[in-house]
Structures are given as structure tokens and as C-alpha cells.
């Protein structure tokens, strides 16, 4: 097994993370889809209530559990794995909802120190059945995540507002450097 390099794409909701992840997947890289989106899809399909707009605490705790499962699976796989969001994103949301700190938990599940963040980008932002919050909420989320990742010793690297191919090249070039 190769040593794992767990790369996080985080940042603003609607900033293009999933599209970038799809492009990385198409290049042959292993990827992990966003825990929150997976939970929302499951809960909506099953008629559950662990949704960020119905029960934000239950949603955050489910996202933490799923992010830990994803982290453990990626570590076992080894090599480079790209994540759409991480345990840190889920723990940050839980702190907003409950005030609960998860620092010791976060420290047990580290990622690569460089974290790629999609900045707020009004021109591509859309809401949908799984993303109901507005652009102002997405900006606040982005600012919180930049602070939280930095406070935990991660190096936020802000992605340029360019095309998908250019953003993927930017990430891969930064990882080679």
C-alpha cells in the first residue's frame, strides 16, 4: 500500500467543488463525494429528517460519521485521494449549530496540509433541492471554513475563478510543487 495523500476540496457551496472532483475522477484519480450531499440524498429518498434545514445537529453528526468512514477507507486504499469536503467541514458546521468543539477528533483524522478552497462565485452559484441556502449563507460558510482550516494548521489555497480544466491543472501543479 502506498502512503495516503488525502487532498481536500472545500470552500464555498456552489463554488464548483463537485465539478472539479468529477474532472479529477475522469483523469483517473480516486475521489470521495461530499458527505453532506450523500446524506441529503439518502434522507430525502427515505423521508428522513437528518437534513440541514430540518435537524442541523443530526445532519452534522451524520456528516462527521460518514467523513470518518470515508477517511478510513481512503487511508486503507493508499495513494492520492481527493475529497469533496472533509471531517473538518462537518465539525465546523456542528460547532456552528451546537457550540461543540471536535478538535481532538479532527486531529485523529488528518488530511494533506494544503487544502484547496473554492471562493464565492456568484456567476456559477445555484440552489437546488439539496442546496437550499442562499449565496450570503455560502459566503459566510466560506469565511468560516477559511478561518477553521487555518486555525487547525492547514494551508488554504484559494482556487482561481477559471474554467474546470484550468482549476484541475492548478491543483495538480500545486501538488507537484
Quick rundown:
Helices cover 52% and strands 13% of the residues. It has helices at residues 17-26, 35-46, 56-77, 87-98, 103-108, 135-151, 164-176; strands spanning 5-11, 31-32, 80-84, 114-118, 155-158.
Task: Describe what this molecule looks like in 3D.
The chain is built from seven helices and five strands. The protein has one domain: P-loop containing nucleotide triphosphate hydrolases (Rossmann fold, 3-Layer(aba) Sandwich), CATH 3.40.50.300. 37% of the residues are buried. Strand 4, helix 6 and strand 5 form a beta-alpha-beta unit. Helix 1 packs across helix 7, helix 2 packs across helix 3 and helix 3 packs antiparallel against helix 4. With 177 residues, the protein is an alpha/beta fold. The mean pLDDT is 89. The chain is globular. A five-stranded parallel sheet has the order 2-3-1-4-5, sandwiched between helices. The protein starts with a strand and ends with a helix. It holds the Pfam family AAA_28. This is ATPase.
Amino acid at each position: 500500500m502506498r502512503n495516503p495523500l488525502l487532498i481536500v476540496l472545500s470552500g464555498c457551496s456552489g463554488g464548483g467543488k463537485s465539478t472539479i472532483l468529477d474532472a479529477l475522477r475522469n483523469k483517473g484519480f480516486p475521489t470521495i463525494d461530499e458527505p453532506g450531499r450523500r446524506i441529503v440524498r439518502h434522507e430525502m429518498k427515505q423521508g428522513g429528517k437528518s437534513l440541514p434545514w430540518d435537524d442541523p445537529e443530526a445532519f452534522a453528526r451524520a456528516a462527521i460519521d460518514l467523513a470518518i468512514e470515508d477517511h478510513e477507507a481512503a487511508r486503507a486504499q493508499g495513494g492520492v485521494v481527493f475529497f469533496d469536503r472533509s471531517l473538518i467541514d462537518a465539525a465546523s458546521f456542528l460547532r456552528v449549530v451546537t457550540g461543540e468543539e471536535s478538535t481532538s477528533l479532527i486531529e485523529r483524522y488528518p488530511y494533506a496540509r494544503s487544502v484547496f478552497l473554492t471562493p464565492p462565485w456568484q456567476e456559477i452559484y445555484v440552489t437546488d433541492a439539496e442546496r437550499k441556502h442562499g449565496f450570503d449563507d455560502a459566503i459566510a460558510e466560506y469565511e468560516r471554513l477559511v478561518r477553521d482550516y487555518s486555525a487547525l494548521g492547514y494551508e488554504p489555497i484559494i482556487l482561481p475563478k477559471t474554467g474546470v480544466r484550468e482549476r484541475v491543472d492548478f491543483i495538480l501543479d500545486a501538488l507537484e510543487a
